[in-house]
């Protein structure tokens, strides 16, 4: 199902763990930062602030900024568009007292194109693989 960007950020809510969620349900970044819950499935509506390299991106909404991560650069590399509202589906990651981040499952652009980074359930495609040096093991994900 392709999703469109919201007209506003009203009616914000967390994404249920095992169900597809209507496009109107978004969690504000501030709520994730204030009460991070490891492995919580979330959907945010945010814009790219900065490409941090190695598939890490700083994004923001009206309530705050958070880093979103799309898998190891040794597996694949990709970019996100600037100056566009993105819908990011993923799960909260909290490690060793660091600020929470979001592991990206998929990103939806304003035009409805979807970039699938990993399956919504189950292990990531790079899970259990050793880190490789040099050329990524996989082609970059493509916008569908």
UniProtKB/TrEMBL annotation:
Q: Where is this region: Disordered?
A: 118-144
Is Signal a UniProt keyword of this protein?
yes
Highest taxon of source: Bacteria
Q: Which InterPro entries match?
A: BOBF_sf (IPR036700)
Q: Which UniProt keywords apply?
A: Signal
SUPFAM superfamilies, alphabetized? Hypothetical protein YgiW
Keyword presence, Signal = yes
Q: Which residues form the signal peptide?
A: 1-19
State the protein's name: NirD/YgiW/YdeI family stress tolerance protein
Organism name: Thiohalocapsa halophila
């Amino acid at each position: 199902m392709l999703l469109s960007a919201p007209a506003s950020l009203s009616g914000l809510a967390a994404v249920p763990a095992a169900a597809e969620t209507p496009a109107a349900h978004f969690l504000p970044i501030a709520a994730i930062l204030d009460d991070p819950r490891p492995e919580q499935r979330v959907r945010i509506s945010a814009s790219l602030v900065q490409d941090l390299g190695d598939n890490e991106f700083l994004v923001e909404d009206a309530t705050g900024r958070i880093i979103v991560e799309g898998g190891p650069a040794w597996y694949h590399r990709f970019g996100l568009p600037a100056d566009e509202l993105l819908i990011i589906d993923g799960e909260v990651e909290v490690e060793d007292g660091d600020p929470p981040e979001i592991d990206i499952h998929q990103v939806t652009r304003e035009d409805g194109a979807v970039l699938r980074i990993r399956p919504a359930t189950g292990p990531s495609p790079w899970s259990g693989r050793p880190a490789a040096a040099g050329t990524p093991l996989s082609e970059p994900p493509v916008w569908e």
